[in-house]
Design a protein that fits this description.
Elements lengths: L2 H4 L2 H8 L12 E6 L6 E8 L5 E9 L2 H13 L5 H16 L23 H21 L1
Antiparallel strand pairs: 1-2, 2-3
Helix pairs in contact: 2-3, 3-5, 4-5
Length: about 140
């Protein structure tokens, strides 16, 4: 598979839809994760509701188009999820990229299927999910 199939127009459009975020005010928690493989960096701020579900989310993303596309899906679809749902979604992405799971149940998720053939790109795709889990864990310890 060529890199042009991986970085196609739809992936680039989804990546370009990512809006630059800013820090959320307290009581939001945040976490930053970096990929030692590719140098991508994701900083996420999350605010939870009284039931522990994601109420508000903001991100600062410095990543390739694949990481940006993954982050755009996360920012669009994570509202209302609790930590268990985020963890299950992250696992679904990892399984799908490894070729052992179905396409995750997110709009546009199939766009990242070609990345299965590029294991070096998997960390960039998973990085937003890892950062969100870390931010959720931080908010649990702060409570």
């Amino acid at each position: 598979m060529s890199a042009s199939a991986l970085y196609n127009r739809d992936i680039l459009r989804l990546a370009a839809s990512l809006e630059e975020g800013a820090a959320l005010p307290p009581p939001a928690s945040h976490a930053e994760r970096r990929s030692p493989t590719c140098g991508s960096r994701v900083t996420l701020w999350v605010k939870r509701d009284g039931q522990g579900r994601i109420e508000q989310l903001s991100a600062d993303i410095a990543s390739c188009a694949l990481g940006q596309a993954s982050a755009a899906m996360l920012l669009r679809d994570a509202a209302g999820m609790d930590r268990a749902a985020v963890s299950a979604a992250r696992d679904a992405w990892a399984d799908h990229l490894a070729g052992t799971g179905d396409v995750p149940a997110f709009a546009d998720a199939a766009l990242l299927t070609p990345a299965r053939d590029y294991p070096a790109r998997h960390p960039a795709i998973l990085l937003p999910w890892d950062a969100l889990l870390a931010a959720l864990d931080q908010s649990e310890t702060a409570a």
